[in-house]
């Protein structure tokens, strides 16, 4: 459960890291407040949220069981736990 959460956090941070790398490459003041105006942070946050939304859609579309499959939960057979899955 922690891996998908960390993945989404990393995807959210991509635009901010890219902008920080741009500031480093152009030798601008990375820690100067003039390099991080509020309207730019808002645009970066909007871009980040868009990336996260796209990643959620792609995750839902391309992961999980195939369509029309039947889920079989884990169960006991002859006293042994049998893993579940799709049929």
Can you put this structure into words, describing what you see?
- By secondary structure, the chain is mostly helical.
- The chain is 56% helix and 11% strand.
- Helix 1 (2-25) packs antiparallel against helix 2.
- The model has no long low-confidence stretch (mean pLDDT 91).
List the helices and strands and how they pair.
Blueprint: H1 2-25, H2 38-62, E1 71-72, E2 75-77, E3 80-82, E4 85-86
Antiparallel strand pairs: 1-4, 2-3
Helix pairs in contact: 1-2
Concise summary:
The protein starts with a helix and ends with a strand. By secondary structure, it is mainly alpha-helical. The longest helix has 25 residues, at 38-62.
